[in-house]
Amino acid sequence: MLSDVEIAQSATLKPIDDIAASLGLEDHEFEPYGRYKAKLPLSVLRSREHAPDGKLVLVTGMSPTPAGEGKTTVNVGLSMALHKIDKSAVSTLREPSLGPVFGMKGGAAGGGYSQVLPMDDINLHFTGDVSAIEAANNLLSALIDNSIHHGNPLRINPKKVTHRRAIDVNDRVLREIVVGMGSSANGVMRADGMNIVPASEVMAILCLATDLDDLKRRLSEMIVAYTADNEPVTAADLGAVGAMAMLMKDAIKPNLVQTTENTPAIIHGGPFANIAHGCNSILATKMGLKLAEYTVTEAGFGADLGAEKFFDIVCPVAGFTPNAAVVVVTVRALRYNGEAQAEQTAVHSLDPVRSGLVNLERHLENLAKFGVPCVVAINRFPTDTDEEIEVIKRRCAELGVGVAESEGFTRGGDGATELAEIVVELCEREPDFVPLYDPSLVIKDKIATVAREIYRADGVDYTSAAESDIERLAQIGINDLPVCMAKTQYSFSDDPAVLGAPTNFRITVREVRLSSGAGFVVALTRSIITMPGLPKEPAALGMDIHDDGTVVGLS
Fold it and tell me: For the chain, does the N or the C end have fewer beta carbons within 10 angstroms?
């Protein structure tokens, strides 16, 4: 089979005008970025304010292997399959980060014959959204240090600057840095650190904003530092909001592209799900709901992370009521969760597959707590055997959960029509969605609810630093925000080595960060970090570009 990049390069793309027309967009309702990409102005939503919404389908998954289990591939394959059965559909997805692209996991444009295109553009700089977010974030950092340097009129305590600089690469040496070294002309020396852009609050704000005014409001409410008297200092206090919003004037507009079968996809925003809230922008999803019968969105990593945050953070803000959830499972991930090294061997024993089913079952039990009907999508790999697939189907039948193979990777939309039919049936049911917790609960109670109900932990332990963080938030009246758990994606626990469906464990929260503009509190567990590092052999080492502009090594 051809590689992802070879398939992408051999695909016949339609002009973006044709893709826009397929969604009923007029010429003034999209702004072309070359022949195959376009920005969608927010007037698309304003002019359709009273139009009915379509059905909302969330693609999530079981706990993954380090390589990922193909949720984006299933998302794209499903949206193409819905077109095959005469339903209008659009995929809404996150923008890839250069960190994973050049690191270990690779790009985030789907795979095989279920990709969003142009794949190389999307995986690299795309339309510049991530760069604009990075610039806005770092402008704010520069304004903080500049204010301290020029007389410190806001009385900022240099030891209590909470806003961190950001860059969109994996670079472990930037986790803890010192700025302002050298002479006094270089500013006040202080400890700092850098996040990867998908973990930045500015990225979260873009993805949760509902319009430009809301973007500005959220930026203005960012608490970036504290004074010597522990009074909060905001981006508005620094006068940063107008310039930050100006830098993001185009980034706020969702991006229109197409799939390998020329069906529409809207890509916008890119927070990670293990260290941020893990969903594409509210604006992109809202546009999908107004422009198509079915919007297929995705939340990152397993359902304990992305899906929980979609239901408890995104849906209440946006007013979304999800109609169905697709839970992606692979034989590889079942073997990994059933016997940690099983995915590294070619021996097709059924025992680790059976053992790994406990992980899938827990995710299904958790999703039922939100009242969203589910179907299991088996993302089938060419190496999977019929016997392994049958083990999954048999268990789903015993659980009373619908299941379908998804072969979008090798067959495109034709490989996911059975899944599409089940999704359509689920979406006809009356939605019974409810978030997991009441946001008015105190912060510790919200963390405890997620830990108990989703992770199945026996309890939560807090470091002294985390206790101090929570006390400081209480002092400034922060209590009724949802919690965004930062936790390993590989386990229900906070230990990435404990796979399957662990019990008899506790979660440790080591730090609590306020993202007041985004509107949530981040609870960092155990050793989770917000600036990843590169692996021993990063994917970047196998990449190149030829004289004719052809990209190689991108996946």
Answer: N
